[in-house]
Specification:
Strand order of the largest sheet: 4-3-2-1-5
Number of helices: 3
Shape: elongated
């Protein structure tokens, strides 16, 4: 019996199996929604709006959704959480640093006439061209870029009746 038990133990150690699905935590109940009517393709750094397709990296969703990348559509932009819609019609709140823009940047580069985003010479792996580094940014980096660029575009307030406030 000891030899049989040892043999079974060795066989189990050589071929482990994962526990059945009922051992994993339950998925929380989520709102269900039809596919939103948005459509947006990012064309530059900080160009993020609802309708952009994103990859949710492992750890971005509840553990019940597993440890794989999930494709989702951005429906509400914000910090500390963004809202995304997934193809299974569920709506989730995800931190922006757990979201990566899908291949839209590469589509924008091809639309601009580029055949490659990487530098033609240099050591391998070749880094991205400086103007296309935003392709690999997370959503948090796009939001930071938007906030950094936004104050420069706002016009300064001009007094309407300046002569009323002059001191003689």
């Amino acid at each position: 019996m000891n030899a049989l038990a040892e043999e079974l133990h060795q066989q189990h150690m050589a071929n482990p199996h994962y526990p059945p699905s009922h051992y994993y935590p339950e998925k929380p109940r989520r709102r269900r929604r039809q596919r939103p009517p948005y459509d947006h393709t990012p064309m530059g750094p900080g160009d993020i709006q609802p309708g952009a397709w994103l990859w949710v990296i492992p750890g971005g969703l509840h553990p019940g959704w597993g440890d794989i990348h999930r494709l989702a559509m951005l429906t509400a932009l914000g910090t500390p959480y963004c809202e995304v819609w997934m193809d299974d019609t569920t709506v989730h709140r995800v931190r922006p640093e757990k979201l990566i823009v899908s291949d839209a940047g590469r589509q924008a580069a091809h639309a601009a006439g580029l055949t490659t985003l990487r530098q033609a010479s240099g050591p391998r792996p070749r880094p991205l061209l400086p103007e296309w580094r935003w392709v690999d940014w997370t959503l948090a980096e796009h939001i930071a870029h938007q906030q950094h660029a936004a104050p420069a575009t706002e016009p300064a307030e001009q007094p309407v009746q300046e002569e009323l406030f002059t001191v003689a």
